[in-house]
Amino acid sequence: MGVRQIFDHVILGGQVIDPATGRNGQYDIGIADGRIEAIEKDLSTAVARASFNAVDRVVIPGMIDTHAHVYEHVTGKFGLNPEWVGIKSGVTTVVDQGGPSCMTLGGFRSYIYNASRTRTLCFISAYLVGGIEGHLYPDLYGPTGVNAQHTIRVARENLDIVKGIKAHAEIGGQSRWGLEVIKIGKHISREVGLPLYIHLGQLWPTRESAPIPDAEELIENLLPIMEAGDILAHPFTRHPGGFVNDNSDIHPILLEAVSQKGIRVDVGHGSHFSFDVARRVLEAGVLPFTLGADMHGYNVNVPGAQEDDARQSNPFLGVAPFNLTIAMSELLHLGVPLVDVIAMVTANAAVILRMEDELGSIQVGREADISILKIETGRFKLSDNSGSEEICERLVSPFCCFRAGELINTDSPFVPTKIVA
Questions:
Q1: Could you give the CA distance from residue 297 to residue 270 in angstroms, rounded to a whole number?
Q2: What's residue 1's pLDDT?
Q3: What is the pTM of this model?
Q4: How much of the chain is helix, strand and coil, in % rounded to 5?
């Protein structure tokens, strides 16, 4: 007679949705030594040190936020506490987009990656200064602020945490130096063998005395540089230079790039998000592959932070409350099926990280990274930073998560209070 399995935790009675395996139904999950040891229809009689009642909850693979800013203190007001963005918000993995550079990645490893219970990965910045409040210092982000050789070397030496390259394609930079930085970024991407992640939507003011660049021309020149697997961010942006042109139409070349060239799209929600633009882009047939929240110190309320002119004048200042699960609720409201929304923050996110053998799925033998959601029905108010308000009928919120088998309560100050309509 075999020895009976003793679990550290069993999760009982939840609706498990795992797009990677196609599993969708009520299952129990057994966890031991930080790993998933059983997925069964009934583990209610199993021997366990603790049990978790997940009845009326949705159990999904540990959520992955593909657009975070968590290089706290180093990136000024942008960098948030990684645990507040991560496990304390029900998110087990966060990807810092462009915070660390070849000069500062060592600090990111020591003070963020090694010090956090949240798994903290990054897309290394193509720029030497990384994400040090670059909107204030546009001249640091031109071709002379890039060292491809050093960035390639540092990225190759840190492939366990570096999962891509981050750069910006926007009309402010275009007015100063064209797309030279993007070309260098793509060279870095090819040499390292990782995807290039491109910010779309104006970030910097255009150069004084220079003509305002044509956003459509920028996009037409950008896309030939990109390759299959590269990522365009902010499809739903309300800022100039995004997926929607001045006539409120989707750029045809963008539709072609996404549908035929294999370019992927990350929501990169932030304060960019517009319900109106999102509807137009979704109706045109562009479904984002991943859903990054893009929370930073200018678009969420940070406890203890002081209001000042620098914050108020930031181009990405946001007042509409949001986090990753609010962004999920918005996509549900806009008609995206729940399983597709969950795939964006689990299986698909693991694919762009090239970690689908480790993350993004609930499977026996894998590390026990699991997010447990509460999905309420009713009438709830959502808003964007264009001033639009909408009433949704389903609201997703984090209930708790397991990170490497450890139960974590979701008590982050970044989880918005629901607003009942």
A1: 10
A2: 35
A3: 0.95
A4: 25, 30, 45
